[in-house]
Design brief:
The protein has about 230 residues and is an alpha/beta fold. About 30% of the residues lie in helices and about 20% in strands. It contains six helices and eight strands, in the order βββαβααβαββαβα. The protein has an eight-stranded mixed beta sheet with strand order 1-2-4-3-5-6-7-8, sandwiched between helices. α3 packs across α4. The model has no long low-confidence stretch (mean pLDDT about 95).
């Protein structure tokens, strides 16, 4: 079941959010906020399918549009504005009558996950941080690492990364995660690209891959909330 939420950004502006509520009979009392990637808003097929998939596994999922996506602009907002929007969504979720008693995890796809990690690095009580295709560096620029804030994170982290991800492969991520004092698990998608898509020659079922990722996230969140 999907419900619309309004997230106030200042006195006269709101961004749209959607709460995908798990069925009452198997709700896990956990909410997962998912921020979208730079190139597509919350209505993209990836975001909708992952939110619906989490709800089907008992996790209440919340997606939202960053302000530039809400306004129909292609270029992402400055970093501080992206973070402020994500924090506003967190505040809205924490105050929502149906969600406020849940444990809260944050994360997202690519840029959305990076912004969530920056928010977590500045503090906050979160059950977990789920990063789907973390943009470790821009494509073809492996020296421009986006890792300075990661050691500040105290929230347990789950990185889901494809071996063909042009924004950073699992092999590139491993030494970074090994240097962190906070628990950080890496879930590798063999032959997966930045959105975990597989080449046709792999002969594997794409939906089965997505389903396995969703199973992993749900199981990991369950373990994170009972630590």
């Amino acid at each position: 079941m999907a419900e619309m939420l309004r997230v106030p950004i200042g006195p006269d502006y709101n961004v749209a959010a959607i709460a995908y509520l798990a069925a009452k009979r198997h709700r896990a009392a956990t909410t997962m906020i998912l921020g979208h990637g730079a190139g597509a808003g919350q209505s993209s097929g990836f975001m909708v399918s992952f939110a619906e998939g989490l709800a089907a596994r008992g996790i209440d999922a919340v997606t939202f549009n960053f302000q530039y996506a809400q306004d129909g602009r292609r270029i992402p907002d400055p970093n501080d504005r992206l973070e402020a929007c994500y924090r506003a969504v967190i505040d809205t979720v924490r105050q929502d009558q149906k969600l406020r008693s849940n444990a809260l995890a944050i994360g997202g796809k690519s840029m959305g996950g990076r912004i969530a990690s920056q928010v977590a690095a500045s503090g906050g009580d979160f059950a977990g941080l789920v990063l789907l295709g973390y943009p470790l560096h821009p494509p073809a620029k492996p020296s421009q690492l986006r890792i300075k804030h990661l050691p500040k994170i105290t929230t347990p982290m789950l990185f889901v990364q494809g071996t063909r991800d042009s924004f950073g492969t699992p092999d590139e991520l491993r030494p970074v995660l090994a240097s962190l004092s906070t628990a950080a698990e890496l879930y590798v998608i063999e032959a997966g690209d930045h959105s975990f898509k597989l080449p046709k020659r792999a002969g594997l079922n794409q939906e089965a891959v997505y389903s396995a990722i969703l199973d992993k996230i749900a199981d990991w969140l369950h373990n994170a909330t009972v630590r």
